[in-house]
Every structure is written in structure tokens, then in C-alpha cells.
Design brief:
Layout (H helix, E strand, L loop, with lengths): L3 H16 L7 E5 L2 E5 L16 E7 L2 E4 L1 H7 L7 E3 L2 H8 L4 E2 L6 E7 L2 E9 L2 E4 L3 H15 L4
Parallel strand pairs: 5-7
Antiparallel strand pairs: 1-2, 2-3, 3-4, 6-9, 7-8, 8-9
Length: 153
């Protein structure tokens, strides 16, 4: 298993190269197929089942690392690159599962933003932008957009 310094370097290198993030606000810990950001000090005692270590930043999968929506939201203003600012109608379309044509974006993962706030992860491939935000969170965002349109929230 890699050392915590190697995990931190791997995570920071990924976020620096892809998203222009210069510093991570905590310590990086690997659990299973994920790299987590935590402010907890020290190591966890052996033999104690752990479900979460803080906020999951990255997942490992066959093609490399994938940023999580919550990880991108946490990093928010630290993200300087690969921010995709969306109009309300573009955001609604993505949240409803549609794709957007975006030939101006390089392939790979992006931070989806609305009114300056990072809302989660998107992915660009072949000039098409797709939403990578988890379904439950998508529904919450659609509900908030609908309420705002009616004068609520």
C-alpha cells in the first residue's frame, strides 16, 4: 500500500494538472478504491471497520482516476482550470441526463459550475459534455432550480 505522502502527492498532482488546484485542505488517505480528504489526525486503529474517512476526492478505476462531485464541490474556489460555467437551461439539460455539444472543451473531467459555484463533476468526450453528478444529487439540484424559478429558495 502506498504511503500517505505518496497518496497526497498523487491526489495533489492530479488536481494541480487537471484543475489548477495548488493545495489540498487536509490529509489524503487511501481506502479501497478511493482517495479521501480528511482533517483527522493520525492513523485509524486496525480492525475497526471504517465507512468514510472524510470526503471522497478521487476513485480509481480501469482508466485512471475520477474526481468525485463532492470532492470538486469541496475544492470549489481552489479550482482554477476546467471550470465549465453553465446557463440555467444547460444545467437543467445535463441534470435531466441530456448531453451538451461542447467542441471548445478538451476531453476529460470538468467541474460543472452555475453562478460561480461548483456543483459537481462532468465529463467531455468527442465534444460532448455529460453530467457525472450522482442521481440523488441531480434530483436535489433540479428541485432547487424549480423552486427558485417559482420564487422560493
Amino acid at each position: 500500500m502506498p504511503s500517505s505522502n505518496e497518496q497526497a502527492n498523487e491526489a495533489l498532482t492530479y488536481f494541480r494538472e487537471r484543475f489548477g488546484v495548488e493545495e489540498l485542505p487536509g490529509r489524503v488517505v487511501e481506502r479501497g478504491d478511493a482517495l479521501w480528504l480528511t482533517t483527522a489526525s493520525g492513523e485509524l486503529p486496525e480492525g475497526i471497520p471504517t465507512i468514510a474517512m472524510g470526503v471522497r476526492l478521487l476513485r480509481r478505476h480501469g482508466r485512471g482516476l475520477k474526481p468525485t462531485s463532492f470532492g470538486l464541490m469541496l475544492l470549489g474556489d481552489r479550482i482554477r482550470a476546467q471550470r465549465v460555467n453553465l446557463s440555467r437551461s444547460e444545467l437543467e439539460a445535463l441534470l435531466q441526463g441530456r448531453t451538451l455539444t461542447r467542441k471548445d472543451l478538451p476531453p476529460g473531467y470538468v467541474a460543472l459550475c452555475f453562478e460561480g459555484e461548483v456543483l459537481g463533476c462532468g465529463h467531455v468526450k468527442g465534444g460532448l459534455l455529460r453530467c457525472q453528478i450522482p442521481r440523488g444529487r441531480r434530483q436535489e439540484l433540479l428541485t432547487a432550480l424549480s423552486a427558485a424559478r417559482r420564487g422560493g429558495v
